[in-house]
Amino acid sequence: MVYDMIVPTSIDIMLPESTRAGLNTDDQKKAIDYMYGSMLDETKKVNIYDTLMSHNDEYLYFRTDHHWTALGAYYAYVQFCNVKGITPHDLSDYEVSQYTGFLGSFYNDGGKPQAMADDPDTVNAYHPVSSTAAMKYGSSEDSELTGGKVIFDESTAAASLKYGAFIMGDNPFTVIENPEVSNGQSCIVVKESFGNAFVPFLVDHYQTVYVVDYRYYGGSVSALAKAKGVTDVLFVNNLSAIRGSYQMGKLAGVK
User: Which are the contacts of 221, defined by CB distance < 8 A and separation ≥ 6?
Assistant: First the structure.
């Protein structure tokens, strides 16, 4: 089964409509609805816009960075489970690691304003419930893979690097094996960096999760799916990925 999840950016979810009206920005909900309407009926649409909007008084996006938080990704995971027809874990089921002092892309691109430096973000990382899940990553499925961690300890990392706690950042190819699951199901996640915070929640539901960052992966997702006999393919991409032909060309290149 093929699933598609389009992630709105923080400007649409976190800013009041009155504020957005004064900015040079389009209605992301309309854009998402248009894209879903253009997809094949066989594609399962995981529409998370209303889900995130209903929680927009919570810490869903970082203030100093363009990414969503793991809490935002969790609510998206719950909606994915609803579409797939499986039971999500409660937030209270997870062990949480906190990495304070995160200053992300908005901070760096905005000239490192002191107000942000004085009030940095915290990266809250939820570990898979399945404690024995093992991760490896590399340049491709045929390369020599390096052992990694689904949640990596970034407590001593530089302020700008703490989002790397999730699946150790943007690697071309990642595989996570979960010996505690025996349902015969596997999934390929095709993503950019927004997918990093989402993947840890999937680990508890699949024997194997393959993660492809389409910006750096040189292979074919369809060929990988056939070779591995995967049951699901999930596209997780934030809306700004359509802003130019380069990103779209990269995504089209992994088909």
Answer: 188, 190, 212, 214, 233, 254, 255
